Amino acid sequence: MTAVALTPSGPFSLAASVRFLEGFTPASYQGAADDVLRLAFPADDGHSTVAVAVRQEETAEGEAGRVRAEFTAYPDTSGGADGAVRAQLARVLSLDVDGSGFPGLAAADPVVAGLMADYPGLRPVCFHSPYEAAAWAIIGHRIRRTQAAAIKARLAERYGQRVRIEGRTRYAFPTPPALRAITRDPGLTEVKIERLHALAEAADAGELDAARLRSMPVDHALAALRDLPGIGPFSAELILIRGAGHPDVFPRHEPRVHAAMADAYGLDETASGDIRRLAGIADRWRPYRSWVAVLLRVRAAHIGGRTP
């Protein structure tokens, strides 16, 4: 087992991240009373699996404590992947972004100030990788989110790595080679299996590398993602924002965010369809447009009694 540490820059609450995951349907996450975040996921290298337990140190009120993680890689890399795992975990928790300027948005925007007050320290908790986010998009196409979550969990149990993390069992989503070997599964059509195979090949070819996607102009990255079979405009934004962890993208194809914005800013009913107007409002959130959009979705879900 290897230990790494992450020092948040700006507000961050691991407990808030855990609560978010408990209500995030694709994660199928069940937390524990100890507020330890236990995760199992395919590593960015495309072949190994990581099991990790994450804790946050207690500090004086108002300060973000350091985040400590202990992980094991399967197969054992003997410490050779420490830096890569640390970077991936930081991205999943949005700790790879300097959040010190985030509280400053509140001074200029009362809506953002209210979101920060309601969800202190909550940053986007991302999919473990663009690869896993894209797989979720393909699995969930034209079926209910709960159905998609059940299929995704079953794939993890049948074809992914089973690990024990501090007394709890977790199943990681299959690595690209394991996903490519699946030929049939209840709930997956032939078309979806073909698209998942194509996705696995794209991941092996480096086309879903998070750093690569984030380094590209946003429009170019979204266009590249839409070239993947089964990935449309909505899914491409999901992969870039919640898979690659891009902190500053306004989602133009997410109606729930648009409706939440119109409600939060007291706009008329037609405003949720005026993307140009909403994008202009979102410009106030730079360079954290993705973060504020996630908080709006969380707020809207809680108001509506749904999961985020």
Automatic annotation (TrEMBL):
<keyword id="KW-0227">DNA damage</keyword>
<protein>
    <recommendedName>
        <fullName>DNA-3-methyladenine glycosylase II</fullName>
        <ecNumber>3.2.2.21</ecNumber>
    </recommendedName>
</protein>
<dbReference type="InterPro" id="IPR011257">
    <property type="entry name" value="DNA_glycosylase"/>
</dbReference>
<keyword id="KW-0234">DNA repair</keyword>
<dbReference type="InterPro" id="IPR003265">
    <property type="entry name" value="HhH-GPD_domain"/>
</dbReference>
<feature type="domain" description="HhH-GPD">
    <location>
        <begin position="139"/>
        <end position="301"/>
    </location>
</feature>
<dbReference type="InterPro" id="IPR051912">
    <property type="entry name" value="Alkylbase_DNA_Glycosylase/TA"/>
</dbReference>
